[in-house]
Specification:
Elements: H1 13-18, H2 21-41, H3 49-58, H4 64-74, H5 77-89, H6 102-138, E1 143-148, E2 151-157, H7 158-183, E3 185-186, H8 202-213, E4 216-217, H9 228-254, E5 262-263, H10 282-296, H11 298-303, H12 314-342, E6 345-346, H13 348-355, H14 364-373, H15 378-395, H16 399-403, H17 407-410, H18 415-421, H19 431-450
């Protein structure tokens, strides 16, 4: 019986495999095997035991239900696995887990799982950024209303709007790479982190295990690795999800029938069980819902930093939930985001229509600055233009018609200068250079991640 939607509804099979019980047990056995090799290579145990144990574990399969059944009796998941391996491998397992503590295995396995999961997430995020970059280039010059506080502000282009998301998501890609260097590490240091069980050869043991697993070791630990790394990891992923949600909210707002500048383009879906006409932004709404859950995981991740002395167990149960759920959620969010981007509908005709709703009023800043350039104080120009805008709005007139009938303005500006000041296409600033600068930055970051 499936209880959690992450088991059957959300997240990819690739991510699900990474955090599956089978894979976790496989990784635990792999860490124990590498430890055994290190013990022999460092001269702590007699030669031959590693080869015998390696042959044994290569010929057996340990099922999750076996470990669960043994754990019911022993009350310890790692010991349950060790007891099964001892039963299966006999004398070859004599030095199994020698000098180690459970979290040498658990925390090193977390490092391996997070490495694989981050690799998948980074790949999907790069795909998102590239899709946004393509859309940015395609719609670089498509003029639309820029909105602040939900109100019409100044003209921008759709490409400029999308370039801002390219920038934000590229920053998250950098953050993922940065946090990876602190979290994707291994721990092989014994009961309280001093390596005492290996009698002076602990650094050798650590070196061999990390070499075999292609991990860097933590510089120093207690019985467990510092939990600030997981707190940072979950926080960084929550930031990424929130950035994607911001785009989702953008689409949801701009998909309103009275606006309809952007829309989800996945066809053939039923919008409502009772209203046949409905086309709802369900994918973007799903992004919002899952992001709310993901942000909620930041708190337990931060709470897990606060452990007693060299460790207690209060973090363990929380991490079993929050780390796999964090990755499954961001995995689904990214997949949904990429689907939205790949099928995004753009309505240029509605952008033009909405641009003209204010009848030129959104060009008031341009007119104000032009008057200032011609001799009025900036404050006085603001007053004059504000009065003209108010007059235009009250009368339902185009701003240009009101301005061209205002002698106070025509003392300073010619008719052509007024027309230029109120031309949407002439008030886009350095949008093109800003877009190109952003795309260059994204390309450089993606290249650095790929090398």
């Amino acid at each position: 019986m499936s209880l959690c939607p992450l088991e059957f509804r959300y997240g990819s099979n690739d991510m699900r495999v990474i955090f599956s019980r089978e894979n976790i047990i496989k990784k635990m056995i792999e860490v124990e095997l590498r430890l055994y090799k290190a013990l022999e290579e460092c001269g702590i145990v007699p030669k031959g035991y590693y080869e015998a144990f390696s042959k044994c574990v290569g010929s057996i399969t340990v099922r999750p239900e076996e470990v669960d059944k043994r754990e019911e009796v022993l009350g310890h998941d790692v010991v349950a696995l060790l007891s099964i391996l001892t039963d299966r491998c006999g004398d070859a397992s004599r030095f199994l887990h020698y000098g180690a503590t459970s979290n040498d295995v658990i925390d090193t396995v977390w490092g391996l799982l997070v490495r694989d999961a981050l690799g998948l997430i980074k790949k999907k995020l790069v795909s998102s950024i590239r899709l946004l970059m393509r859309l940015t280039r395609e719609y670089k010059d498509l003029i639309m209303v820029g909105r602040t506080h939900g109100q019409h502000a100044l003209p921008i282009t759709l490409g400029f709007k999308l370039a801002n998301y390219v920038y934000e998501l590229t920053r998250s890609l950098e953050r993922l790479v940065d946090v990876e260097s602190r979290v994707v590490r291994g721990k092989m240091a014994g009961a309280v982190g001093t390596m005492a069980g290996w009698r002076g050869k602990g650094l050798c043991v650590e070196s061999v295990v990390m070499r075999e697993l292609n991990l860097r070791p933590h510089e120093i630990t207690t019985q467990v690795v510092p939990r600030d790394g997981f707190a940072e990891l979950v926080s960084v992923i929550a930031i990424l999800a929130s950035q994607i949600e911001r785009f989702g909210v953008e689409v949801r707002e701009l998909m309103r029938p009275e606006i309809l500048e952007l829309a989800e383009g996945v066809g053939g879906r039923v919008g409502s069980s009772t209203m046949p006409h409905k086309a709802n932004p369900v994918e973007c709404e799903k992004i919002s819902g899952l992001t709310r859950v993901l942000r909620g995981l930041v708190v337990p991740a931060i709470e897990d930093i606060v452990l007693w002395h060299e460790r207690d167990l209060s973090n363990s149960s929380a991490e079993r939930l929050l780390i796999p759920h964090t990755f499954m959620l961001i995995d689904e969010i990214l997949d949904t985001f990429n689907e939205v981007l790949s099928n995004l509908k753009v309505y240029p005709e509605n952008m033009i229509k909405n641009l003209k709703l204010s009848k030129g009023a959104i060009m008031s800043e341009s007119l104000m600055l032009k008057l200032t350039d011609k001799g009025l104080s900036r404050y006085e120009a603001h007053r004059v233009v504000r009065e003209l805008v108010t007059k235009a709005l009250r009368s339902g007139s185009e701003l240009i018609d009101v301005v061209l009938n205002e002698p106070e303005v025509l003392k300073y500006l010619s008719v052509d200068e007024v027309r230029e000041a109120l031309d949407y296409s002439k008030y886009l600033g350095n949008y093109n250079e800003l877009i190109e600068r952003t795309l260059k930055y994204a390309e450089e970051v993606i290249k650095s991640v790929s090398t």
